[in-house]
Structures are given as C-alpha cells and as structure tokens.
Design the sequence.
C-alpha cells in the first residue's frame, strides 16, 4: 500500500492492483419507540455513555439488512418487539472513523422493558416530564425532540418498489 492522489484526495492504494482504501466508516442505528405518550429509553451500563439514558440502538452487521438490525438491537437491549415505520433522522459525524447514525420511528409491538444486564442496566417508557430529571445524553435529547415534534412522516420503507431489487433496503418520501 502507498499513499496516492485518487480524484484529488490522498488515499491508501495497493501498488500491485487497483484496490483503493476509501476510508473507515461505521453505521449506527437508533430506535424511537413510543407507547402512548412515552418514549422507550435505556440506561447505558458500559462506555461510551455509561450512566446516560439513550434510545436503544447499535451498529449494523456486515450482511444484516438495516431494518433487521434495529429490530434486533431493540429486542437485545430491552426485550421490546418493535416494527420499523420510517427513517426520521440522520446524524453525520465525520472523524477518524466516519460515523453515520440513522434514527427509526418504530411501532411498539409487544414486551415489557427488561434490560439485558450487559449493555443496558435499566429500561422503560418515559414521558417528557419524567425525562426532565433523568441523565439523558445530549444527542438523545435531540432525538427526543425529533420523536415528539415530528413535522413529517420521514422516509418510509418501500416494500413494493416498481422494480424488484432483492437485497436492497429502500426508503422513500
């Protein structure tokens, strides 16, 4: 590997083939699950964010569709079954590992909030009034505003695209 100018940006590239390392990226997902007028939150039991209340979520796996990732993460962290309705927010955080975070509006399906005891040590549905006295993480406070102040339905999952595109996760306005 050598450093080489590729389309105006210095990138790592293989000296023996055409491989170019385009960068380091991670994609996180988060759930906004409402039950009545209360939002599902979990308290982080590990760093980063230990002791802070956040919405449940995590990182996508290499071969896992994103809508399955968020359902799995909610189930694993707090025992709640929820279904994807739409994509309602996106955070772009360019840094050493460029992080994209996608927030999903989800329908509560079933279950009682039960922390996994590993990543999460508490879980529950909370009102805005209850959250005022809780140690809610800053980014989560922004997502709470998104959940309660929805001004649009967000990007909805396109389950019947005009062209069959197997293996694609499609969301549209």
Sequence:
């Amino acid at each position: 590997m050598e450093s080489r100018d590729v389309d105006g940006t210095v990138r790592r590239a293989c000296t023996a083939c055409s491989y170019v390392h385009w960068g380091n990226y991670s994609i996180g997902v988060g759930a906004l699950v409402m039950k009545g007028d209360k939002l599902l939150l979990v308290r982080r039991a590990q760093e980063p964010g230990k002791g802070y209340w956040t919405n449940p979520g995590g990182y996508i796996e290499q071969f896992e569709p994103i809508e399955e990732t968020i359902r799995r993460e909610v189930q694993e962290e707090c025992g709640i079954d929820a279904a994807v309705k739409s994509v309602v927010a996106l955070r772009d955080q360019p840094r050493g590992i460029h992080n994209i975070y996608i927030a999903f509006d989800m329908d509560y399906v079933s279950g009682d909030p039960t922390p996994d005891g590993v990543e999460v040590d508490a879980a529950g549905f909370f009102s805005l009034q209850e959250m005022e006295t809780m140690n809610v993480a800053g980014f989560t406070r922004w997502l709470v505003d998104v959940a309660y102040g929805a001004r649009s339905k967000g990007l909805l999952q396109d389950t019947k695209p005009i062209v069959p595109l197997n293996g694609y996760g499609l969301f549209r306005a």
Notes: Residues 66-78 form the longest helix (13 residues). The chain has three helices and twelve strands. The chain has a mean pLDDT of 94.
